[in-house]
Amino acid sequence: MIGPAFYEAYANVLVSQSLLIALYRDPDRVRTTYGLNADELELLRSASPATIQLSQGIIRGKRHAVLEQSLPQTMAVLREFDGYRLVGTYVDDALLRPDLDMLRPATHGTDFVAWLTRQEARIPPRLLDLARFELAIADLRSDNAAASAARDKAVTAGAGGADLGGEARPWMTADVRVVAASIDVLALPAETTLAALAAAPPRPGGVLLRKVWDQPRPLFHRIGVATVELLLRCDGRHTVDQLLDQVAGDDAGHREGALATLRGLAGLTVLSVTRE
Amino acid sequence: MTPLHDLPHLGSGLGYRREIHQPTMEHRDRIDWLEVISEHYLFASVQGRERLAELSAAFPIVPHGIEMSIGTPGEVDEDYLDALAALVEEIDAPYFSDHLCFTRAGGVSLGSLTPLPRSRALAKELGRKAQRIQERVGVPFILENITYHVDLRTELTEAEFIAELCEHCECGLLLDLTNLHTNARNHGYDAAGFLDAIPTERVVQVHLAGGTEAHETLLDSHSSPVPEPVWALFDELLRRAPLKASLIERDQDFPDDFGELLGEVERARSAMRAAAPA
Ligand SMILES: [Fe+2]
């Protein structure tokens, strides 16, 4: 009798080298871990280790392919860096996580960049700048709300921006992303290398990305540190007055500059507002 | 439910991939129909749905799934089936397809078509399950044979398993002749014997693709032209059963010259025409 326990053990053997070794050297461990009956254990052990190993490689390869699709340049740099050893540790771990399902491959890029952020000391400097930038591009490509917002804007082209009174609460529209970066990611070569990342001059600031309806690539705008900070706070929870307090304090000149930036972004329909 | 023999004759089609969108649209007069990957559109963005509408205005479309995982114990996810039924209706698909395998179990998403522990009891269980899915979606469900590497010592051979499953449902078969050729080579069995053992009258459609070889093992990478032994199997199958549709599958290493893919589409069409009763 072959039941669900068999499938659970089988799937886990296909994603774990140590479990595969245990299956042949310490089958009792596998049997008790998954509650297999004698028939199930025998069936699982009937497969030759070579064919399981081949399948393990194919399964890992699919995860690599998903990451290469959303973060192509980041992955190319990681391959150059250590031949994908670091990526391999992520993939081995990701394969055991039920929240990362291949039915929704777009979620993998976000998770991988969050993981890379936690590995900052182990990865090439500035790689995170590139990874976050590529993730924003991939995110805009797959996000339904971004596509709808871009389409609405294409239809209502030329409509004026939101009115920014002191009590208005600005937020970035769904077709926009902001990425902070320590270098000019837009100046990196199309095929980025470790050397190109290392040679990039420091340039704190960021990029504003806007999805264009019917286009696979968004529009990119270089923005300065002050604009990045301002935009990242535009989440619909803070009023214009609060935003100005946060980024400019009491300095009248700074406040005026920040307000002009907000107005400019609203005029470009990057910002919309909520009023209470 | 449309009986399999009343399904429309779709002819010779091509697997739609975004990378070849433009030439596919430009040469619509040389491609009879398109197969799209269901999961690319089930929960698609507005833009994805518009692309699908554009395709469906130009071609008959069949959704081909890779993540239904019919073999996973328990029922298939309701949301998945709802979305699939909506997709079928949206593009007015004559039928839909997925693989006879599992891709997830026990919280592990393999993302890879994985062979089942083939037994008579499982064939019966999955045949009934396939029938329920077909009735739920509302058009015929055709199941595809996979390329497999894990060689579990199972009660039934792959062909016996497929034949047994067909005893318990009215579903059709999508015979991937490249997978058949690949498995026959890798596991040392006779492909013609496989055709003898399955109910070929249930085969609605075939897949034709080319793979690679590593360490004397064939891999179904869908990255090269359809090899001659697969064309020979196609002719052999056409001698045994009338087909509704053939499909050239290419997922990577797209040729610079799109004419190569069109040539394969045309070769499949000619073979089907030559075999059709006058
Ligand atoms: Fe196939």
UniProtKB/TrEMBL annotation, chain A:
Highest taxon of source: Bacteria
Protein name per UniProt: Uncharacterized protein
Native source species: Asanoa ishikariensis
UniProtKB/TrEMBL annotation, chain B:
Cross-referenced InterPro entries: MbnB/TglH/ChrH, Xyl_isomerase-like_sf
One Pfam family hit: MbnB_TglH_ChrH
Superkingdom of source: Bacteria
Name this polypeptide is given: Uncharacterized protein
Species whose genome carries this gene: Asanoa ishikariensis
